[in-house]
Amino acid sequence: TRLASGLKSALARNEFTVVYQPLCDAKTGEVTSAEALIRWNHSKMGLIPPNEFIPIAEETRIIIPIGEWVLRSAVQEAKRWHDAGHMIIVAVNISCIQLEECHCYQKIQQILAETGLEPQFLELEITERVALSNPEEMIRILNNLRSIGIKIAIDDFGTGYSSLSYLKKYPVHTIKIDRSFIQDIAFEVRDRAMLKALLIMAKSLNFSTVAEGVETPEQFSILSDMGCNVVQGFLLSTPLSGEEFFNFITNRR
Ligand code: G
Ligand code: G
Ligand code: MN
Ligand code: NA
């Protein structure tokens, strides 16, 4: 509850920032996209991790204005990359609470229009952490978003929250394989077999694949050999401030 009351004033007090973690093509190493991740620097308690405050923000529905702020910040940042010639996709975590909200589609379109970012460079990452009050409405909104070119990614794929049933229900473009499936691939035959099966399924259904939590060159080369499309993790980079990310993509060229 202390966090809940702090969350209410955090936006007005400018306590949030957004950091960007680069993702690269598993074959070429080229930076294809960046995941936007919120950070909260509380005036008294210091840095509070999203895992602690996002669930509270969802319960109290304050995630709606916070999520809109993250989305606008990330889309504006991506426009700066594009203006400098770096055609990189920005991936933003979206809570299902935000998607169920009735003006969500219009808000997203408006943010794109006011910023001038093309919709195909925005990807929305979804994980279902809370029970939905109106799942049909969410599917309708996701279909609308998809129809204007926005990409939909299933985050933490393979975990309890993000199961196969998502791929049936939602208009998905990208599967982000949870890092628990990547962690042991360099030394566990069974983990490699599971990953391989996942990638074969994804490919035959035309999903783009991202491996999360790639930390070692061994993991990278296994993923690249198995045909995983994109990798994300500390091997390439930790999440970076907007300025650091801009330098990162500029200096890689
Ligand atoms: O960046 P970090 O590893 O601390 O993120 C932890 C979790 O918080 C991740 O599961 C991520 O999806 C979630 N998260 C980070 N930023 C946002 C955000 O802007 N909105 C939502 N809904 N979740 C976020
Ligand atoms: O759940 P989600 O995929 O949105 O979480 C993203 C978070 O995962 C990022 O905030 C980041 O802190 C964390 N992360 C990114 N790369 C790595 C990695 O290579 N190893 C570990 N342990 N965590 C990572
Ligand atoms: Mn994510
Ligand atoms: Na994830």
Automatic annotation (TrEMBL):
It comes from the Bacteria. Signal peptide: none annotated. Residues 1-253 form the EAL domain. This is Diguanylate cyclase. It comes from Desulfitobacterium metallireducens DSM 15288. The lineage of its organism: Bacteria, Bacillati, Bacillota, Clostridia, Eubacteriales.
